[in-house]
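Reviewers of the previous submission asked for a worked example of the structure-prediction workflow described in the proposal, so we include one complete record here. The input consisted solely of the amino acid sequence. No template or homolog information was supplied to the procedure at any stage.
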Amino acid sequence: MIQTGQQDLLRAADDLAARLPARLAVFARLAYNYRWSWMPGGPDVFREVDPYRWSMRRENPIRLLLDSPDDALIEAAKDRSLVARAEAMEQTLKAELADPVATGSNARPIVFLCAEYGIHRSLPTYAGGLGVLAGDVLKEASDRRLPLVGVGILYRQGYFHQRVDTSGWQHEYWIESDPDRLPAALVTGPDGQPLTVMVNLWGRGVRLQIWRVDVGRVPLFLLDAQRSDNDRMDRWITARLYIGDRKIRLAQYALLGIGGIRALRAMGIDPAVVHLNEGHAALAPVELAREAMVDGRSLEDALQDARGRTVFTTHTPIPAGNESYVPEEVSSVLGGYPMELGLSEGEFFDLGRPRPEPDEQFGVTVLGIRMSRQVNGVSRRHGEVTRALWHGLFPEQPVEAVPIGHVTNGVHVPTWMAPPMRALLDQHLAPGWIERASDPATWEPVEDIPDEELWGVRSALRAELVDYVRDRSVGDRLAREEPADYAEAAARAFDPSILTVGFARRVAAYKRLPLLIHDPGRMLQLVGGDHPMQVVLAGKAHPQDEEAKRVLQAVFSLKLDPHVAERIAFLEDYDMGMAARLVWGCDVWVNVPRPPLEASGTSGMKSALNGGLNLSVMDGWWEEAFDGQNGWAIPGDPSLDVATQDLQDAAALYDLLEDEVCHDFYRRDERGIPRAWVRRMKASLRTIGPRYSATRMLDEYLGRVYELT
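From that input alone, the workflow returned the following structure tokens.
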């Protein structure tokens, strides 16, 4: 395990333990490693200290232990069973940390660079799917004992929180985080002072300090400009994730790429592989090349060496995810950095231009592709789309020969599988099955699980979600000062016996949330008919995406129609905690992006792990996952014009819901079991479980991309 910063975390744990009853010291030590979050029963151990403050502090174990009153802590210390469970967790953690790496070397680790990390809802360093995927990579690397290090940014205000007014218009607000009340510690040098590195931006030095967060065996190092020796403008660079101002956002990317490599060097870490997870960190291999030139290498050799150590994953064909900047913007932020490479500004810009022409903008994705030895998309379909999208960078080759492959995303099974479902599979699958999650044979015994048991778990998870929706929807509606009858409607009518459909993801136009209400009459018949369904919606629009905000507002326009208040609930402020509740409890997960714009999508994979069934457009991961038995598919013809495509796909969605989904869910035998539905659940678990786990994903990165020796 990488040692740099570990003593700083131990000191922080000791300081916290000193404030607690002696028998709770083990809780302080556990709190400083997120491994507890995916241990069976791990969250429950902290929750039982003080359930109210656990919820109110966003499940942050540090704040729980600091803010719980003395009487709650004293009672927890007296609970011998609770303390024994915590001690057993610590012994498991110690044993894992003591194990050697399974491949490669800690001396030269894989370095994973990403603008966001969704480790847990208590760490505000993520916005959505990209970050959650990055968090799953770190957790799976820990489980697999891989020598991997994460590098990102500590955003003091994180991503925005969401409030929706009575008209359905989204409003944003931010909450400042105190990193001393997070499971993080400042990395210090031999002199006991914070270790820092410098990056020149806007013609002046910006000093970065480094925080360490432990994710099992994997350290995550987060860069932070919030220092008194930086001016106010520079401290703001690391304030918010995906900040609106373009130049400040580019400055973030410079700190991540250039500062990330310099931070690694300051900590004595020499990467064997640098994995750029999206283009935000694309300046990292450029910094590797600059280092090589300082050591006496020629520019050509330095660039070639940097490419030989860099791999790049692109996650979206959407322009907003492939940012470009005019030369003046780049010059303003980076100043003389190109000259440190021995390049003119024009030569430097050409590294990130699709074509070497002055009017072409500098793109971070183009730079990432040009500076990497391997490039991949995140599903088979996305690989095809990406080869066509960036064919212009390889004009001498036919589209099918463009050197961009794919590694389809997968999800971390222990994080996203609900405890009751895991307990059921523990009973029926072979011992240690979760370590072999990528092997289809591991999942074959699912077929032999009694239908009554599988349906019983599915029904229990739905009931838990209904309780959650009742509480959250009433609270959200009251906070918006909605009429009391409307506020209470979901609590009265949301029913644990009713088919429950989920649609939760970032609100963006291409995700096509309005497709659900494309024909309001048919939707109202579905939620209010003899075989009704209830719908849970959640998601955030980017603060600057006015079109997406109008999409959300359009959905709210139906709120007073018959049955809508009772059967359709929008839950505000979507985060990882809410996402887990939804993928655990929804019977059907709907995904209707405009093809071919969905790169992968992972929420449907998480739903499938919990017995949920996918109803999705044939795009992203579903295009390769659907087999006719494990869910439902909408063809989604991308050759049609937008209006025709929406009309056709909405009709297909309603037809499937009416003719197959509702029909199979409510068709029960004499024992009350929907046999056809359960058959489809089993098919989904057996096919999606192994193929779309992070275990399989990391297998492919190790074998096809990282090429560790």
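The longest strand covers residues 204-215. We consider this example representative of the routine output the project will generate in years two and three.
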